[in-house]
Design brief:
90 residues, alpha+beta, two-stranded antiparallel sheet, two-stranded parallel ribbon, 28% helix, globular, Transposase
Length: 90
């Protein structure tokens, strides 16, 4: 079973989507965002809303979806995490 969990900045769960284990994580993004139980505040230039994702979400489809929902993406690119770890330990 695959669980896609959305948390707020403090780590409190606010959204959840469940699918079969063989489903790619990035394909659950829309369903996870739509699972929010309360309306989300409208993001503004003064109060943008960020979305932090790991390299498993580095797809054009996800970037387009985040733009549609007006999130500011903070997504590691594939290969970037390994490079950061190498630099930290080097």
């Amino acid at each position: 079973m695959k669980r896609s969990l959305l948390t707020e900045g403090g780590g409190v769960p606010i959204g959840l989507a469940i699918a079969g284990a063989n489903r790619n994580d990035f394909k659950l993004v829309r369903e996870t965002l739509e699972s929010l139980p309360i309306p989300r505040p409208e993001p503004t230039d003064e109060a943008p809303q960020g979305m932090c994702l790991n390299k498993g979400y580095d797809y054009r489809e996800v970037r387009a979806l985040l733009a549609e929902y007006r999130f500011t993406p903070h997504t590691r690119c594939r290969g970037e995490e390994a490079e950061a770890i190498k630099q930290e330990s080097g």
